Amino acid sequence: MKTLEIAKSSLEKKGYLDIETPDIDYVKEIQKLKKEKNAVLLAHYYQIDEIQEIADFVGDSLALAQKAAKTDADMIVFAGVHFMAETAKILNPTKKVVLPDLLAGCSLADSCPPDRFSEFKKQHPDHLVVTYINCSAEIKALSDYVCTSSNARKIIDSIPQDQPVIFAPDRNLGAYLNKETGRNMLLWDGACIVHEAFSMEKLLNLFKEHPDAELIAHPESEAHMLKVAKYIGSTAGLLNYVKNSDKKKFIVATEAGILFQMMQENPEKHIIPAPAEEDNTCACSECAFMKMNTLKKLYLCLKHELPSIEVDAELAKKAIIPINRMLELSK
Ligand code: 13P
Ligand code: SF4
Q1: Which residues of 210-240 are buried (b: 16+ CB within 10 A; e: fewer)?
Q2: Is 44 annotated as ligand-binding?
Q3: Which of 48, 78, 82, 108 most suits a substitution to test ligand 2, by most atoms within 8 Å of the C-beta?
Q4: Are 169 and 183 in contact (CB under 8 A)?
Q5: 116 CA to centre of ligand 2 in angstroms
Q6: How distant, in Å, are the alpha carbons of 119, 125, 166, 278, 292 from that of 122?
Q7: pLDDT single digits (tens) 196-211
Q8: 192 labelled as ligand-binding?
Q9: Which ligand is nearest to the CA of 290?
Q10: Does 227 or 2 have the greater pLDDT score?
Q11: pLDDT tens readout for residues 106-160
């Protein structure tokens, strides 16, 4: 037998793969296991609808970190991507934190390798480092402050204007913040593949069809998108904007998972996903990492408490400092 087959059959014997489980009612089983294990299910707005529906809490990156910091559950099941579950583990070193698919990473976090970033930081010793939460624990450990798209402005404004700052890893969010705060932060050259996939040409055609629509965008989007957007904000910010606006039609430039909540909250409004360059099927942008989590994987990870997130204790001690600074400033 080949190595992969041996590994697969041993995992099957242990019941981990549960390949033959077609009759399981995953929703019912997940609810049951959550209760038995005193587990909390936290989900990001980009998760598939079925996961958002059964989550105990659905939120943006900041709200999820705040929830993770406060939970009294014994286990955190994180329906999101690796850096989010890792942040939850850093905040809860003694709790079990599981992620349905360990391969659910993030292109933005990957665009900032710790060895290169450490070198970059050494070249600018007089700079403070503010990093977007979409980065690894190693990068957080090299940072002075962590921020998300909903509190970045507040975090940066808390630093004296004449203090030089490095902002990483998202160049689009960084450039937007430089414009908003009047600073000249040094930007790391990273990006999210999903938010850089929108097509201006297709967007202009969409506007011809819907001249009464407003474009709203996540700040990870490129400058030309942000320039024409009526509102720029985090996923929670975009949801609030649509809920509180008198307008009836919106083109939404962020990952398509947000449409589930947006349409549920605003059944009378017309919500259109901003078109992506390559997409000819659903005409929207999906994060392949976020979509790796499924109900079946969620059930299996709750049942077997695997894959669990582990963070080296020394690393966690350093990484929690800038995370706690962010949480303190966000109260
Ligand atoms: P927010 O939910 O904080 O807006 O972040 C969006 C995102 O890209 C998460 O990966
Ligand atoms: Fe990362 Fe972009 Fe996916 Fe968010 S949408 S998890 S930033 S790749």
Answers
A1: eeebbbbbbbbbbeebbeebebbbbbbbbbe
A2: yes
A3: 108
A4: no
A5: 21
A6: 5, 5, 11, 39, 36
A7: 999 999 999 999 999 9
A8: yes
A9: 2
A10: 227
A11: 999 999 999 999 999 999 999 999 999 999 999 999 999 999 999 999 999 999 9
Class of domain 2-104+289-311: alpha beta
Write out the DSSP string of 188-202.
--B--TTTT-B-HHH
What is the sign of the dihedral through the CA atoms of 140, 181, 275 and 263? positive
- Pair of tokens at residue 48: 């598939």
Token pair of 21, please? 């489980």
Are 17 and 5 spatial neighbours (Cβ–Cβ below 8 Å)?
A: no
- Kindly report the protein residue whose alpha carbon is nearest to atom 9 of ligand 1: 61
> Of all protein residues, whose CA lies closest to atom 4 belonging to ligand 2?
106
Residues 245-271 have pLDDT tens digits of 999 999 999 999 999 999 999 999 999
- Architecture of the domain defined by 108-192: 3-Layer(aba) Sandwich (3.40)
Residues with CB under 6 A from ligand 1: 60-62, 134, 148-150, 192, 218, 220, 234-235
Task: Give the pLDDT score at 21.
Answer: 58
Q: Which fold has domain 200-273?
A: Rossmann fold (3.40.50)
Domain ranges of the chain: 2-104+289-311, 108-192, 200-273
Residue 219 known to bind ligand: yes
Tell how far the Cα of 175 is from the centroid of ligand 2, in angstroms.
18
Given a cut of 50, is residue 1 above it in pLDDT?
Answer: no
Tens-place pLDDT, residues 118-131? 999 999 999 999 99
Residue 277 banded pLDDT, cuts 50, 70, 90: confident
> Closest by alpha carbon to 99, among 261, 315, 309, 327?
309
- What letters, b where the CB count within 10 A reaches 16 and e where it falls short, cover 286-323? bbebbbbbbbebbbbbbbbbbbbbebeeeebebbbebb
- Domains 2-104+289-311 and 108-192 equal at CATH topology level: yes
